Amino acid sequence: MTVKIGRNDPCWCGSGLKYKKCHEAFDTKLETYRRKGVPVLDRSLIKTPGQVEKIRESCKINIAVLDYVAEHIKAGISTREIDDWVHSVTVRHGGIPAPLDYNGFPKSVCTSIDDVVCHGIPSDDEILKEGDIINVDVSTIYNGYFSDSSRMFMIGNVSPEKERLVRVTKECMEKGLEKVMPWTPIGNMGHAVHQHALSNGYTVVRDIGGHGVGLEFHEDPWVSYVSEENSGVLMVPGMIFTIEPMVNMGSDEIWTDEDDGWTVRTEDGLPSAQWEIMVLVTETGHEVLCW
Ligand code: MF3
Ligand code: CO
Question: Which of 64, 75, 169, 229 is most enclosed, with most CB atoms within 10 A?
């Protein structure tokens, strides 16, 4: 049940202003789109300025953790060591690694090498070697607020083919980011990601997407990176979601390891890359909160 706010009541966003001087016009605009049949997000998932500040604090830790990984990652270390770094740096900053025990995930970070698309589980037996490409996907809970981002790392000298995959995947994320504008549909973002991958001869994973994030680890909307233009939910100021395309060198077919229940691999064994950022939709465009 929602109680209608009076025009002279304090705004729901916590600004302290009267509703009529604050988000009334926003709500009316949102309602107009909804009536026209445009999918819009539930207002409970549109972040207030106060929530954005809390989420920003969580993001700072996530960035610091990935910066630490960037400085120390090299051939010869195990992915289990990366897990130790992520756990200790997160806790030192007062955070909690979000993946740990999330739906039974056994470690604090996902480490995905070469043909592993995502959700790789760190292991003592997995030693990084020259020529590997690895995605390190870090997520943090801080004071109850969530952040989530991932980067690719190239270990020593990497083949030109893999280097190109890593670079183009980052470009895909950036092309998508350019399309993040308020009052436009999120499908434009996913379409731009997909087009850039296709024009470089790659495919984009369809079955796993991005997500809203901040108050929970994974919130609505589910985000596709193979979407059509003019489709999907309307991006509105205060919305936060991830851009995290998984781009494959070969086919977009993937499979999940039944032994561990997590590790996702490419069907053809060819490499896959992923970069992930967290984006806030603003009044005038967007702001990257986490990378
Ligand atoms: N960080 C991943 C994402 O981008 C989710 C990992 S879930 C886990 O959404 F349990 F595997 F950690
Ligand atoms: Co994510």
Answer: 169
Query: pLDDT tier at 5 (50, 70, 90 boundaries)?
Result: confident
Pocket test for ligand 1, best of 103, 119, 208, 222 (most atoms within 8 A of CB): 119
**Rounded percentage of the chain residues whose pLDDT exceeds 70:** 99
Can you list the domains of the chain with their CATH numbers?
43-290 (3.90.230.10)
Nearest ligand for residue 278 CA: 2
**Average pLDDT, rounded, for the chain:** 97
The contacts of residue 11 (CB under 8 Å, 6+ apart) are 5, 17, 18, 19, 21, 22, 23, 24
Taking 60 as the threshold, does the pLDDT of residue 1 lie above it? no
CA-nearest residue for atom 9, ligand 1, is 210
